[in-house]
Amino acid sequence: MTRPLKKSDEDDVSLYNWLGARVKRFVRWWRRFDARVNQPLPAGRSRFWTSLAPDGYPWYVPTLGLALITAMALGPTLRTEYANIAMLVLGLGLLLLIHILAERSRLLHAYLLAGQLFILVLLAAIHIVLAPPEAFGTDTQALRLHVGVAIAAMLAVSLGAVWTIARALFRTGTNGTLAHALPNVELFAPKDRYDFMGRGPVAALVSAFFIAPISHPVELLLPGSLLVLFVPDHYLWPGFIIAGAAAWCALFLGILFDRLMEVLKTVGRLFFVGPQFVISVLVIVVAVLRLADVHYITYLFNAGSGGYGNTTIMKYVALAYAVAWYYAFWSDHFVARRLMRLLEGKGGEFTPLSIAYPYKGDPNLSKVKNAGRSIALHGAGRLRIEGEYEDAYEAAGPALQFLTAAEVLTAFRSQLERLSAERTDTSHPLASVRNLQRSAFVYPAITGAFAFGLIGIPWAVSLFGAVQPPEMAVNRAPPADLDLLSLLQTEARPAGACPALGPDTPRIAVVASGGGTRAAIYTASLLRGLAQQGRICEVVAASGVSGGSAALAYFALHEDELRRPGPPDEAAWQRFSDTMALPFIEYVLDAASDMRIVFGRWRWRNAACGEAFSRNEEVVGWMPARSRLGSILAESFVCRMGAGVMADPSFGLILNTAMLGSFDAASGRCANGGLPLPEQVRKCRAEGNAAGAGGTRGPDESAQAGGEPGCRRGNGDRYAERRQSFDRARRRAQRQLSTRLSRCRYRPATGTRFGGATILGDRRRSGRKPRCDNPLFCRSRDDAALAAGRKTGAIARRRRGRVRFR
Question: Does the reported pTM lie above 0.90?
Answer without folding.
Answer: no
